[in-house]
Amino acid sequence: MSKKNLIIEQAALLFAEHSIESTSIEHITKKCGISKGAFYLHFKSKDDLILQIFEHFFKDIAGRFTAIEGGSFPASKKLRTYVITFFEVLEDKLPFISMYMRQQRTPNEALFALFTHYNSLIDEATKQLLITVYQKKIEGVTMDILVTLKGLIRGYSEHILLNRAAYDYDKLADTIVERLDTIVEHTTLWFLQDDAISLPPCEAISFELISKEIVTQLDNYQDNAFLHESLELLYTELNKQNASPALIAGMLANLQDEPALQWLRFLIKNYKKSV
Q1: Which residues bind DNA (predicted)?
Q2: How many angstroms separate the CA atoms of 241 and 225, rounded?
Q3: At 5, which CATH number?
Q4: 172: closest CA among 55, 272, 90, 67?
Q5: Are residues 55 and 23 in the same domain?
Q6: 171 and 250, same structural domain?
Q7: In terms of domains, do 90 and 29 share one?
Q8: Radius of gyration from C-alpha coordinates of the chain
Q9: What is the dihedral of CA 1, 124, 237, 240, to 10 degrees?
Q10: Residue 59 neighbours by CB under 8 Å, 6+ apart
């Protein structure tokens, strides 16, 4: 684990346990076994750290979703896995999220912009998954199905946040998937319609964003020769004017079993440039 991710994960735990106001940077550095100088190499302030904690959460879930969509198991199981994964991530991050909500910290412009950006990226991953699962059945109405799925998940998420108990997420996933299957099979009236099943790549993803992520991961994987070399080759190929799709696909395959690299795979897969 990189030092930056160590700080993010330990700080989230400390904030959840003691609150943001009661947790000092000194508490965080002591927990991580680092100096304050090492902390400030990665974060400008505590507020910057909080922003990057949320960004870390968003990257985690988008990366997991793209791994599910590209997984080798049957398409019929992918949506169920997606739903279970969402609620498992929610459960894992719930202590920090609940603390943040209880303290009624007003989201600043930077946090709102961050949420908007990653929401569009997660929507993209979800749309691709829905197309994989339902194929021609949702041609022309992919956006409506996406909104319906998000509505179901958001409704149950709010219930879980406000009514803490031990929930059976396998049963919840089966419930949501059965409901969505019924809507896909039997609905005749759709509110939102799109032009085609082949949706354009996400405009929010830039080459600069991909390059920055590769450089970050090259630093994180210096001790893993195989992954470091794959990242280097990927970076070199993407910088070519006529990049080889086959070589890029091969390098992405090398990264598919590494959880921390799923976000990078998502970015490259949905980059608007044809590679």
Answers
A1: 24-43
A2: 27
A3: 1.10.10.60
A4: 90
A5: no
A6: no
A7: no
A8: 20
A9: -140
A10: 118, 263
**Is 193 within the bounds of a domain?**
no
12 within a domain of the structure (yes/no): yes
Please answer whether residues 204 and 122 qualify as being in contact, where contact means their C-beta atoms are separated by less than 8 angstroms.
no
156 contact partners, CB below 8 Å, separation of at least 6: 87, 172, 176
CA angle 79–82–88, rounded 5-degree value: 145
Domain check: are 52 and 39 in the same one? no
Which domain does 23 fall in, by range?
Answer: 1-43
- What is the number of residues in the chain? 275
| Cβ-Cβ contacts under 8 Å for 41 (sequence gap 6 or more) | none
Q: Dig out the tokens for 76 from the structure.
A: 């019929």
* Tokens matching residue 70: 């590209």
Where a domain ends, among 156, 186, 216?
186
Would you give per-residue pLDDT tens digits along the chain (275 residues)?
Answer: 678 889 999 999 999 999 888 999 999 999 999 999 999 999 999 989 999 999 888 888 888 887 887 778 888 899 999 999 999 988 888 888 888 877 765 656 788 888 888 888 888 888 888 998 999 999 999 999 999 999 999 999 999 988 888 899 999 999 999 999 999 999 999 998 775 444 455 556 788 889 989 998 998 888 899 999 999 999 999 988 888 989 998 999 899 888 888 888 888 887 754 44
Amino acid at site 265: R
Residue with tokens 């609150």: 19
Domains in the chain: how many in total?
A: 3
**Is 245 in the same domain as 173?**
no
DSSP 198-255: SPPPPTT--HHHHHHHHHHHHHHTTT-HHHHHHHHHHHHHHTSTT--HHHHHHHHHHH
Say if 197 falls within a structural domain.
no
Tokens of 55: 């960004």
